[in-house]
């Protein structure tokens, strides 16, 4: 058995592919500049009733192409603090859609309660002023259920 055959049979890396031609697997870990986020943003229609386009420029969240479930929170181009935020959901880096059918201002990731297969989002509770940070929040859990995401708590208040 030749060296090349032995390397293939044993699964050894014998330097047969030059580093310039090898394609590295995407890295695991939070990556808010990932091209997957920009591609997902590109599929979103403008914010309803406006011509406001979504932007991945200031994404937040925990997008991780190796996580069972993760999210990227994006807002409209030129956003202010109270602008709508869309929660893009991902399974193993694949875009699934948005967490809710409408977007809410002051949406944030609850990192303390989020796990590999569960994303917890905090939504501003209505009743406070529109342009100030929330006085109270409603937390909503989203969990990966083998082939889909399930919202485990009532939808955020409108």
Automatic annotation (TrEMBL):
First and last residue of the signal peptide: 1-22
Record carries keyword Cell membrane: yes
Keywords: Cell membrane, Lipoprotein, Membrane, Palmitate, Signal
Domain of life: Bacteria
Pfam family, one: Lipoprotein_21
Record-given protein name: LppP/LprE family lipoprotein
